[in-house]
Structure formats: structure tokens, C-alpha cells
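for the recovery benchmark. C-alpha cells below, seq after
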């Protein structure tokens, strides 16, 4: 099998960021899909993701070592993008989904094109991290799921593309979270704003929101929501 190229590694690194360690095997559908695209075997792509695991300090801190066969180019690519997810999004998203993130005609500016690539990376990473399930309700319909920023896009350039600044929420809960009507405590338990309680009695609000107060969200295996981001949300957006 030919050596991995830079473009191939960029796509593998993109996939790595949204694949839990326990899913880095040759039968995981996204791995199979990328293997077909690259003309490689699923086993080869799986091994590459496990090579990248050995370079990940977060996984090392969890006691996960990965495989020891990372190449010089693997290390170079990892070092280049470890703290620069925007650059990874800009380079890898057009390789993975060229029709979805390429310019919409000659009039679309570079800034807008970059934004679309960034948003595509963030959405793809967050939704796959949560296995396309709302972390509150378990809703599995992709059309109704949103990659919600904990600290809003406009508030922090540094956190815009970090998967730990994202939650997979169904549309209603995404809107409520964005407007500070719900939040989560340090134990990831649902908080509901007093404004909602003031609308009672209301069967709809009781069923959707109040029946879930205090229940923990379903945590992903990778990219756990940031405590710091959630604290920011509680202090700056949540209407307690």
C-alpha cells in the first residue's frame, strides 16, 4: 500500500477528531466510507486513527496509548494542527465534502467560504461525537439536530471550532439553550430558567422541560463538554 499523502492524512485527522476511541475499528461506517474514498482498506484507515491516538495528549491522560507506528508525517501533521482547528477545517473539509463547502459561485468571498468550512467541521464533529442523538432527549433525526455552541460563535474565536464547546441538541432545546432558557450544572444536569416555570400550568412546557429538570445529559465517549464553557453559559446567558 502506498504511503499516506498529506491530503489523505488531513482527512484522517478530521475523522479522528469525531471518532471515539472505541469506534476506531474497521467496521465503523465513517471509517469504511473514508477508506472507500481514499482507495484504502478500512483496516488501514483504522490503524491510522490509532496511530494518531498515540500523539493525542488528551487520550494519553486517559491512559489510552493507541498504536506506536505513527510516521514522521503523522507527527508533523498532528503538530501543525493540534492547536489550529480552523486551519484543519479550511484544508480538510473541501477534501471530504467538496460540493458542500466550496464557493457558491464567483461572487462568494473568501471569508464566507472559510466560515462555511468551519461550520461544516464543527457540525460534523459534534454530531458524530454524540452519534447523532440529542444529548437531552435521544432524538435521532439528523434533520432536527443542531451542533450547539456552548459559548456562542460571536463570543470566542478561540472556542468556535472546539468540539468540547459543542452539544448535540434537537431544535427546540437548541433554541432554548441559545436564549438562556436552559443550561447545565457542573454535573451536566439540566437547569431550566424560572421564566419557563412562570408560564405554568402548561402541559407542553411541563412535558418538554420541567419533567427533565435535574436529569444528566447523555455524555459522549469523546470531546466531553467543557466545564469552563458551561460555567460561562450559566453566568452569561442562563436566566436562572
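predicted aa per position
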Amino acid at each position: 500500500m502506498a504511503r499516506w499523502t498529506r491530503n489523505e492524512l488531513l482527512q484522517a485527522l478530521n475523522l479522528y477528531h469525531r471518532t471515539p476511541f472505541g469506534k476506531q475499528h474497521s467496521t465503523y461506517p465513517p471509517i469504511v466510507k473514508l477508506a472507500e474514498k481514499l482507495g484504502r482498506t478500512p483496516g488501514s484507515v483504522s490503524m491510522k486513527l490509532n496511530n494518531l491516538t498515540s500523539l493525542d495528549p488528551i487520550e494519553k491522560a486517559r491512559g489510552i496509548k493507541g498504536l506506536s507506528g505513527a510516521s514522521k508525517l503523522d507527527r508533523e501533521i498532528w503538530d501543525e494542527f493540534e492547536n489550529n482547528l480552523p486551519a484543519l477545517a479550511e484544508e480538510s473539509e473541501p477534501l471530504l465534502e467538496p460540493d458542500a463547502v466550496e464557493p457558491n459561485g464567483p461572487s462568494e468571498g473568501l471569508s464566507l467560504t472559510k466560515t462555511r468550512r468551519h461550520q461544516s467541521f464543527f457540525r460534523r464533529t459534534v454530531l458524530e461525537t454524540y452519534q447523532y442523538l440529542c444529548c437531552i432527549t435521544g432524538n435521532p433525526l439528523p434533520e432536527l439536530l443542531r451542533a450547539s455552541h456552548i459559548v456562542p460563535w460571536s463570543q470566542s474565536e478561540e472556542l468556535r471550532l472546539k468540539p468540547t464547546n459543542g452539544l448535540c441538541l434537537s431544535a427546540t432545546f437548541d433554541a432554548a439553550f441559545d436564549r438562556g432558557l436552559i443550561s447545565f450544572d457542573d454535573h451536566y444536569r439540566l437547569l431550566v430558567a424560572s421564566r419557563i416555570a412562570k408560564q405554568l400550568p402548561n402541559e407542553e412546557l411541563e412535558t418538554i422541560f420541567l419533567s427533565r429538570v435535574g436529569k444528566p445529559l447523555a455524555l459522549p465517549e469523546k470531546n466531553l463538554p467543557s466545564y469552563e464553557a458551561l460555567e460561562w453559559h450559566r453566568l452569561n446567558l442562563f436566566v436562572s
